[in-house]
Specification:
Blueprint lengths: L4 E3 L12 H9 L2 E4 L2 H10 L6 E3 L5 H13 L4 E4 L12 H10 L3 E3 L5 H9 L6 E6 L4 H11 L5 E6 L4 H12 L3 E6 L7 E6 H7 L9 E5 L4 H12 L4 H10 L4 H12 L3 H5 L7
Parallel strand pairs: 1-4, 1-5, 2-3, 2-4, 6-7
Antiparallel strand pairs: 7-10, 8-9, 8-10
Helix pairs in contact: 3-4, 7-8, 10-11
């Protein structure tokens, strides 16, 4: 009989932020695979859980996945934990999940603590839709590619960042996005938790004479409707209404659709715009 894998979220700071179900699973499994066995041992000792521990981190994930799959095939039940939060979210976990799917091995993902939603709600920014990007790449070319994809998105954008890279990242975001709103969430759920809600320009200034410490989640405002409309106005402010209509027709819209779009963008009535279309074939 095949065993079962459990992906178990662990607290992101406060040891009390663990579910009853997570504790039950950790007590019941045969083995616990941990990103850092020393870190996980603190949690297990706190709840008086004694189980065999093996390391499973980003540097051995490929090799260890095969080893754990073998144990699951032998009928062992295994819990996978990371240092904090949910396995597979900017932490090891996705490789063994894919292996379980390929091998037809049952696995279960428990709900629990995650820094993403905690920071998002703290930010006060739009929570109806968001994009999570984790840690930005170190390479400037890769960073720019990601940012280019995000520049025109309306969704709130979430990043993780390390303290030694925070200042450079804030400068990079300011240069890329302009002076948008940002929430900087530091040491979430821990004793020194700090939530800053400011603009990117103010954020850069705040850390000019301050050394960042701890773990950070950055929640950046998406592109506003005002910003989008302003950019559209820049596109057509120097062209006539007739040229504006033709531009949309050349982009594949019907004359009727083009009139509607121009009326919306110029905040004029469709009847007003229609008369400028009479000479357009």
């Amino acid at each position: 009989m095949l065993g079962k894998l459990f992906l178990v979220p662990t607290p992101i700071g406060n040891l009390k932020d663990i579910t009853v179900r997570a504790l039950e699973v950790l007590k019941d499994v045969d083995l616990i695979a941990a990103e850092d066995t020393r870190q996980s041992l603190k949690l297990l000792n706190h709840y008086e859980i004694k189980k065999p521990l093996v390391s499973y981190h980003k540097h051995n994930e490929q090799f260890k996945s095969s080893d754990l799959i073998g144990k699951l095939k032998d009928g062992k039940s295994i819990a996978l934990v990371t240092d904090a939060g949910t396995p597979g979210i900017s932490d090891p976990g996705s490789v063994i999940v894919r292996s379980c799917i390929d091998e037809g091995i049952d696995f279960e993902v428990l709900p629990g603590a995650t820094a993403i939603t905690t920071a998002l709600v703290h930010s006060g920014l739009d929570t109806t839709a968001f994009i999570f990007k984790g840690f930005l790449p170190r390479e400037n070319k890769q960073r720019k590619e990601i940012i280019e994809d995000l520049l025109n998105r309306k969704e709130t954008i979430i990043f993780y960042e390390a303290p030694h890279r925070l200042k450079a990242t804030l400068e990079f975001l300011k240069d890329s996005f302009g002076n948008r709103k940002i929430s900087i969430c530091r040491e979430l759920t821990k004793i020194h938790e700090e939530i800053l809600r400011l603009t990117l320009l103010d954020a850069v200034g705040y850390y000019n004479d301050k050394e960042p410490r701890g773990e950070y989640v950055l929640v950046l405002d998406g592109k506003s409707e005002d910003e989008i409309q302003s950019e559209k106005q820049e596109e057509w402010k120097d062209i006539s209404i007739e040229e504006h209509i033709i531009k949309y027709i050349n982009n594949g819209l019907t004359k009727k659709e083009a009139i509607k779009m121009v009326a919306k963008e110029r905040n004029l009535s469709k009847s007003n715009i229609y008369k400028y279309s009479l000479n357009i074939n």
